[in-house]
Amino acid sequence: MSVKLTTRQVGDVTVVDAVGRVTLGEGASVFRDTIRDLAASGHKKLLLNLAEVSYIDSSGIGEMVSGFTTVTNQGGAVKLLNLTKRVKDLLQITKLYTVFEVFDDEATAVRSFA
Amino acid sequence: MADNVGDSAWTVDHVLESTLDSVDRGEESVLKEAEALGFDEDDLHKIGISVRETLVNAVVHGNRYNNRKKVHLQILRGADRLTIVIADEGEGFDMSTIPDPLANENLLRHCGRGLLLIQAFMDEFQIRAREPNGTEVKMVKYLAKTG
């Protein structure tokens, strides 16, 4: 199964709930296009909820980084919510844990954008 | 290259097309053998990602999706280890030209983390030029010793 993304607004923060696998091909493309479309339509406070993401490869990580760069360069922010242990491990190995703000609680994460 | 794989070796060979479908099929095949050998869920995930990254490199960077070039996957089940050898028929590459993905100036690069993940997840990793052309990667994961 590739990744399925749904978006919802919590105040001025757009929460992107991701379910499935983010790997080279359809999964990573959907991820990239969704973040770019949101940024292009003025959604500059993005919270990626990865609680149901079972698998990310280096292409998926690359798309997360690209999304982070795109939105940050436009004056916005991309933050991460509810990482599984496996995704957390990947971010630690790649040192991206030092780049992304990561939260375990949605309310706290939303407040951090204020 | 896959000469030392432990006792009771069981070998599976695949010749795969240079497509992303092959990446999925190759990963599935390796995971089937790894599961039969008794690896736990965490190790299966690490093996799966390592195989996926290597197959993607072979298809995308090695063979460049060229349908005349194949990807060679060999899976060897030893008594205490799983050995995986993946080779492409591309032009090869120089490891020293790959930017360090952990250097601060490279942290926000879009790509270049695949080899880092493989080296973190597998117990042994070797890469070499393949004759007459291409690149061959050998990686080994040992079963955790218990008792």
Overall pLDDT metric of chain A: 94
The poorly predicted ranges of chain A are none
The share of residues in helices of chain A is 40-55%
Q: Any guess at the CATH architecture of chain B?
A: 2-Layer Sandwich
β-strand amount of chain A: 25-35%
List the secondary-structure elements of chain B in sequence, H or E. EHHEEHEE
**Order of strands side by side in the largest beta sheet of chain A?**
1-2-3-4-5
Range of strand content of chain B = 15-25%
- What's the number of extended β-strand segments of chain A? 5
Give the assembly state of these chains: heterodimer
> Could you name the CATH class of chain B?
Alpha Beta
Outline type of chain B: globular
CATH topology of chain B: Heat Shock Protein 90
Number of domains of chain B: 1
CATH superfamily of chain B: Histidine kinase-like ATPase, C-terminal domain
Q: What is Rg of chain B?
A: 15 Å
CATH architecture of chain A: 2-Layer Sandwich
Q: Give the ordered list of helices and strands of chain A.
A: EEHEHEHEH
Uncertain segments of chain B: none
In short:
The complex is a heterodimer of chains A (114) and B (147). Helix content of chain A is 41%, strand content 32%.
List key phrases describing it:
heterodimer; A: 114 residues; Transcription Regulator spoIIAA; five-stranded mixed β-sheet; 4 helices; B: 147 residues; alpha+beta; Heat Shock Protein 90; 5 strands
